[in-house]
Amino acid sequence: MSGVRRLFGRALAILAISNVTPYLAVAGPPYLGPGPAASTGIAGELRVDSWNIAAVGLKALLPEFSATYPNIHATIHMSGAQLQARFMLSLAAGVGAPDVTQLQFPEVARYAATGRLTDLTEVAQRYWKDFPEHVWKDCMHEGRIYAIPWDIGPCGVFYKRDIFERYGIDPGKIETWEDYLAAGQRLLQASGGKTRMFIHPTGFQDVMFEMLLRQRGGQIFDEAGRIAVNSSESLEVLQLLKRFVEAGTTANIQFWSQPFFGSFSTDTVATYPMAAWFGGFLQDYAPGTSGNWGVFPLPAFSPGGVRTSSYGGSAVVIPDQCVLKDAAWSFLEFMICRPASQLAHYQNFNLFPAMTTVYGDSFFDEPLVFYGGQAVRRFFTQNVERIPVMHHTQDWLETRLYVRQSLGKWAGRGMGDGAGFLADLEARLARRLDREIAPGSLSQAAP
To answer: Bridge partners of 92?
Structure first.
């Protein structure tokens, strides 16, 4: 991983030499379709990079897109984990980038900071009301829009109905994390230590830390990009995680490992606080458990508090080196900004739509057999607008890895003084990233 970071660093160093002014159309205003009548003058060959089911989703809509834009030929390239690394290198080189590509939400800022993405502000503004504020924040850099939201990851708690019924646990009565902890302790005792409440590997605590910090309204960076991790919100999250671990309610199982997937079909784990996309993994890896699943809101930190968060999701960008920007925008607009397309991506490939205007479709109200008849799609739409904003910066990937390593070391030392850990993490991040510490830091408030 360090080698990849060095390559990114070199790429950014090269980009810093030049001053590129982003633009949208090669000649004239950008096309603002879609519509067959207006598309006759737009033509060209497009290369589009995407990953796994997202790429398959784009391919599924290609026949309809081609019928609407007969003069645009788009080829979808399905790339793996190195897609974003290759894209950064192509931006640095000034050649070789696709015409359209997918990026993870937290990574958009890093690519936008290069100055090598097309500024989409003027054409994106017409869709501003169609997407919630928190996703637009992930698509912006210095007040300009460089990406269009695609799918998002609203969170909830997936649970096994048979385990809850066996031990008399009512998910409707789990309103706070305190309630959740008590239910976990009850499970642990009643099952003779066989069943844990959720998976929380000590080496990957950043997953729950980030999800809960966002829910609590905390930040790692403030809106100005200063280090803001040493806060009362962060401390509250750390203390909560420590209580879960010390109570024995967590399973120290590595995410995405064989034991992780195997736990879907056994009694070892009762719940999975995760994003909407997690349901696809359950159906793929544990089809025999159909009917045994349900979902309830994330417990609140206090009664009446926010009961949702977000984890994951992606956006789509056009690199500035694309010479067919009108055609690229037509593709992006058709595939991502069209309600019918967003709905199709969800119906066929479980990509939860970022576009809130599709939530009125009756598809969301269908009872799902896999979830015991629960309308889980509707469930995940209910609090999307309440998801707190999380400020991501161009060094978010490095920060996430560093936070993960630091939390792992903290766990290895017995999960001691959380306040001291946060003060140390704050100082180390400030030095490592050469960023200022935000006003209001707990270390600044200390006498």
So the answer is: none
Nearest residue to 295 (alpha-carbon basis) of 366, 372, 361, 359: 372
Lowest mean pLDDT among 34-48, 179-193, 270-284, 429-443: 34-48
Q: Are residues 92 and 229 in the same domain?
A: no
pLDDT at residue 18 greater than cutoff 70: no
Long-range contacts of the stretch 375-381 (C-beta < 8 A, 24+): 376/279, 376/295, 377/346, 379/156, 379/295, 380/154, 380/156, 380/276, 380/295, 380/352, 381/154, 381/356
If you average pLDDT over residues 129-136, what whole number do you get?
Answer: 94
351 with 403, same domain? no
Per the structure, the count of domains in the chain is 2
Tell me which of 345, 370, 386 is where a domain ends: 386
Identify the domain boundary among 342, 362, 386.
Answer: 386
| Domain CATH code at residue 295 | 3.40.190.10
Instruction: Please give the DSSP secondary-structure letter assigned to residue 298.
Output: P
Do 326 and 425 fall within a single domain? Answer: no
Pair 150, 351: CB distance under 8 Å: yes
**Ordered alpha helix ranges (H), 333-440:** 339-349, 376-381, 396-412, 418-433
Regarding pTM above 0.70, the answer is: yes
Is there a single domain that holds both residue 279 and residue 419?
A: yes
Same domain, 149 and 96: yes
Largest CA distance in the chain: 71
Is residue 114 domain-shared with residue 95, that is, in the same domain?
yes
Does residue 440 sit within a domain?
A: yes
Distance, C-alpha 56 to centroid of its chain:
19
Q: Is 265 exposed, middle or buried (0-12, 13-18, 19+ CB in 10 A)?
A: middle
Whole domain around residue 209: which residue ranges?
155-310+391-445
Coil/strand/helix, residue 49? strand
Of 214, 203, 207, 204, the residue nearest 236 (C-alpha): 214
Mean pLDDT (the chain) is 90
Q: Indicate the burial class of 247 (C-beta count within 10 angstroms; 0-12, 13-18, 19 or more).
A: middle
The CB-side HSE value for 430 (13 A sphere, CA atoms) comes to: 17
pLDDT one-digit tens code per residue, 34-53? 444 345 578 899 999 999 89
Verify that 200 and 264 share a domain, yes or no.
Answer: yes
Task: Kindly state the DSSP code that residue 266 receives in the 8-state scheme.
Answer: S
Report helix angle 232-246 to 418-433, nearest 10: 120
